[in-house]
Structure formats: structure tokens, C-alpha cells
Amino acid sequence: MTTTVAAPIDRATWRICWIIVFGAFASGLDASVVTIGLDSISSDLGADLSVTQWVASGYLLALALSLPLTGWLARRFGAGRVWLFSLAAFTVASGLCAVAPDVVALIAFRFLQGLAGGVLIPAGQTVLGQQVGAARLGRVMATLGIAVSVAPALGPLAGGLILHGLSWPWLFLINLPIGAAGLFLGLRYVPRGSRETTGGIDFAGLALIAAGLPLVLYTVTTWGDTGRLEWPILAPGLVLLVWFVLRCRRHPRPLLDFSLYRNRLYRAASLAAAFNGALIFGSGIVVTLYFQLGRHLDFVDTGLSLLGFAGATAAIAPVTGRAVDRYGAAPVALAGAVLAVVSTVPFAFLPVDAPGVVVQVLLAGYGASVALVSMPMGIAAYKTVEPSRLPDAAAQVTILLRVGGSLGGAVFAVLIAGRLPDLDTAFRMGFAAISVGAVGSLATALSVRRAS
């Protein structure tokens, strides 16, 4: 195994890194914290739950809609400026959501919040990548990954605690101090980035992906909820995405630069990141349902039961970053995949009411494996590109993670739903599928190693 001496990271860079984490944490937390408040929102605003569901669905679709613009915006205005504007817009939209007079206004404000939130993570990744360079990228990206991985897991707990003593507007008001602190520090310390002469936006390409990507994500997400795959919606979405890719390959100023995929290592690493996104998000569905359906816990207790999982992920993430900078991405991901298999196979043989200590030990092991598996592949993709092309790489990898995560969540949800109400069989199948997915992660890590 080849090792390199990790280049030191100065205090100013770490300060920028933790400021960027503010935005990533707010965006990640908001994706899950509001979901458990839908019943309360529906009752308070006098709306049908099927309509109120768009408070959550509209946010997720808006996240996908804004991602393709990130690369162009970062090149045109500078990644730091885009990050600051997005955080400001996200914070203002959060406040508007809290004072929405009816469900239609809430859905509209939530959509605006999602547009801003979708840009925060890839713009922040671009800021960090351009600040530190490839040799130090693993450690700072892994730190950002703590927020990306842990915030969604904390959402149910945070939402449950808020609704236990406060009303639903506080689900949005919690973003205001986070956003204000991030803006105050960001205006002082985050570099604005360089501007480039990019030309105009390819509006035809934007229309293709803006229509196609939400259609695909919506169809895949509803498949997980209903068990039915709506091909009349999915097929046009896939056609539009293929059309978008073909247009970008011919266009002189494409919205997304797909020439990056000519690099064998970038191609292998970004596709591996998509696969791991499906595994991680899908397994998150299994673990959450395991506590809610299998062990009959409410949202607060489920969130408390997931703290060991989230804590292990957060604790191992910095170690992951240092290991990637020193040993490379593939060996770290291989170790994580092995740990994922070891920590999930026992669930396939345990009853649903297994002793809590055993469950928590295994979940902590799996939480550690999540950090080791999910982060290195994205870091490996970013390490292959020049700083000036990081905006496109960050947008593309984030889109792949979003699509992979939605697909993984749907597949795992369908696997479990098809075997209910037999809880033991359903969750044994779910955890067996996670183990199979971890073996797949071994294969993707080996593909990256061969491409290195």
C-alpha cells in the first residue's frame, strides 16, 4: 500500500471549513426534520395531508432542480459568493415558511428554500476544494461530510423534540440562528472565488434537466412509498435526461461539463459514489423503519436510538479524511465495505426484538462503515479535476448521489413493504440486502483502485 505524508492544514482553512459546515448542516437537517411535522401542519392549516405532503416533496424536487445551475453560477460569480447568497436565501425562505398563512404559500416558500439548499453543498465543496488543493482535500471534505451524513439522521429526533413542546413553525425557525451565524462568519472569512467569462446559460439544456430530473426523482420516491413504478411519468423523465446529456456533449458552453467522464478515475469514482449513495440512503430507510415498525418506537425514541449510529459516523469521518489523504480512497472504502458486511450480516439472523445493547453495538459499527464507504469515493472524484473544474464535478457528483439515494431508498422500502406484516422476515431481508450492497461497495472500490 502506497502512503504519502499528509500536507498540513492551517487554522484559517479549518475555520473556512467549519463555516461551510453551517450551511451543509442546515440543508441536511431540513430535508428530514419537517417530514414528521406534516400531520401537525395539515391540521393547523386545514389542508388535506395529500396536499401537505408537497411541503416535503416540493423541497426535495427543488433541491434537484437547482443542482445543474451550481457549476455555471460558481464559474460566473465565484463559488464563495454563490454559497453566501444561497445561505442568505435559505435563511430568508426558512423565515417565510414559519409565517406562511396557508399551505399553498408554505409549499411555495418551501420550494424556494429547496432551490437555495440544493446549491449550498456543491458550492461549499467547490469553495473548500479550491482553497485546499488535492493533497489536503480528504480531510476537509470528510469534515463537511459529517454534516451531510449526520444531519439527516438527527432530523427525526430534532423534529420530535420541537413538536413535543412547540408548534410546527419552529421546525423552520431553528434555521434562522444557524443561517445568521453562518452568514456573519462567512462574510468575514469565506473567500469569494474568482469570476470567469462563461457566456449565457444554455436555457434549452436547463429546461431539459429541470423537467427530467424532478420527474425521475419523484417517480422513484413514490415507488418507495406506494410500491408502484409510474412508467408514464418515469419514461419521459429518462428521455429528457438522455436528451440533456447528448445536448451537453455537443454544446460549446454546456450547462454541465461531461468531458470530465473521459477521465477513467473520475468516471469510476463518481459512479461508485452514486452506488454508495443508494446503499447509504437505502439502509437509512431500513434502520429507521426497524425502530419505528419493528420495535414500535415513536419519532423521539427512534431519533435517540439512532444517536449511536450518527455518533459513530461523525467520530470516524475525520479519520476517514486523514486516511484518504495518506493512503488513497480505494483502501479506505474497502475497509469500510468489509466493516459494513460484518456489522449488518448479524441483523439478518437476529429477531426484531434482539437485545438493545447488541443492536446498538452493531449499529455503531455500521455507522463507522458509512463514513468509511460513502466519503472516499466523492473525494477521489474531486481529486482528479483541476480547481477551475470543481464546480462541475461537485454538481455532477451531488446529482448522482441524489439520484442514487432516491433509488436506494425506494428499492429498500419496496423490499421491506413486500414482506410486511411479517416483521422478522421483512427486516432480515432488509439487512441482508444491505450486506449484499456492502459487497457491491467492495466491487466499486476495487474498480476505483484499478483506475488509479
Oligomer: single chain
Distance between the termini: 13 Å
Major pleated sheet: none
SS-derived structural category:
mainly alpha
Mean pLDDT equals 84
Task: Give the number of helices.
Answer: 18
Number of strands: 0
Morphology: globular
The CATH class of the largest domain is identified as Mainly Alpha
- For the record, the CATH architecture of the largest domain stands as Up-down Bundle
What is the N-to-C succession of helices and strands? HHHHHHHHHHHHHHHHHH
Contiguous uncertain segments of 5+ residues = none
Instruction: Please name the CATH topology of the largest domain.
Output: Growth Hormone, Chain: A
Beta-strand percent range: under 5%
* Radius of gyration based on Cα positions: 21 Å
Fraction of residues in H or I helices: over 70%
CATH superfamily of the largest domain: MFS general substrate transporter like domains
The tally of domains stands at 3
Task: Walk me through the structure.
The chain is an all-alpha fold and 452 residues long. It folds into three domains: 9-196, MFS general substrate transporter like domains (Growth Hormone, Chain: A, Up-down Bundle), CATH 1.20.1250; 202-254, no CATH class; 263-452, Up-down Bundle (Growth Hormone, Chain: A), CATH 1.20.1250. It has helices spanning 11-33, 38-45, 49-52, 54-77, 79-98, 103-132, 137-165, 170-173, 175-189, 203-226, 231-250, 264-294, 299-305, 307-327, 329-344, 356-383, 390-417, 423-451. The longest helix is centred in the middle third of the chain and has 31 residues, at 264-294.
